[in-house]
Amino acid sequence: MVALLGLIWGGTFMVQKLALGHLPPFWVAAGRIGFAAVITVAIWQMRGGRMFTTQETDWTRLGFVSVFSAAVPFMLLAWAQQYVTSAFTGVSMAAVALIVLPLAHILVPGERMTLRRNFGFFIGFAGVLVLIGPAAFASSGSPLETAGQIACLAAASCYGVSSIVLRKLPPLDPVGLAAATLIFGSCMVIPLAFIQHGLPPTPPLEGLALVALLGLVPTAGATLLRIVVIRSAGPVFMSLTNYQVPLWSVVFGVTLMGEPLPGSMVWATLLILSGVALSQLGALQRLFGSKTV
């Protein structure tokens, strides 16, 4: 599931960039989260529509997770992509792993920082920088570039903090949790899109298809997968997804957009995979049935 999430999210920025050519940023965010909410709620109701699976509930924390794992980062990234390079966006998503690590050490039992884990994370992050190269910090030329970079890092922080809080929720139905995340997010993003942009323009069929694709795959499907991974394997393991995002972004750029293959890609891949293996050695051994370390 972690590998699949890396693949899905690696192509999201490319699709979102195309969608921004047809709709303003907050309506792109509203369209993807609203479409995903309709699909997920329908599936949730077909499964019985339950939320908390025990008598223990925590609606306040659930609302926090919903807002900061979908609504806020979706808006921040859609707005930021108008002003920053896609390479910088990839680096900021890789930083989620570095944000989660110290937070999990303090707040999540069993997610302790160790020398091996720290070393692995920094090797993986070095691989991201090698993959993207100096272009990660190249200027886009926009006067709002600094604000866009801050927005990207703020979105990464939202993902990191919400992953920690999500792990601490009482037992829930995973589809119900995904539905709640998207419902709360829609209630926030859609009114803000009206306030910021007014009524949405009528996009061409291509624009509608792009927004529908964003809603169906990287929002509805990936939100459910993300919840399942965090609830079962923990936020630190889940944060490994963000090392894969820039890697897949380059692969899609080369294969689908005809971009040149960077010579550093092989070395970056080795660094990223080595960092993941080192930082999560125990989890990987449990995953493949070996004795734990």
List keywords for this structure.
293 residues; mainly alpha
pLDDT < 50 stretches: none
Estimated structural class: mainly alpha
* Structure annotation, total helices: 13
Which strand-content bin applies to the residues?
under 5%
C-alpha-based Rg, rounded: 19 Å
How would you describe the shape?
A: globular
Biggest β-sheet strands, sense, barrel:
none
* Percent in helix: over 70%
Mean pLDDT: 78
Query: Helix-strand pattern, N to C?
Result: HHHHHHHHHHHHH
Strand tally is: 0
Distance N to C terminus: 22 Å
Explain this structure.
The structure is a single chain. By secondary structure, the chain is mainly alpha-helical. It has helices at residues 2-19, 25-46, 59-80, 86-94, 96-107, 115-132, 145-167, 174-197, 205-233, 235-238, 241-256, 265-279, 281-287. It is globular, with a radius of gyration of 19 Å.
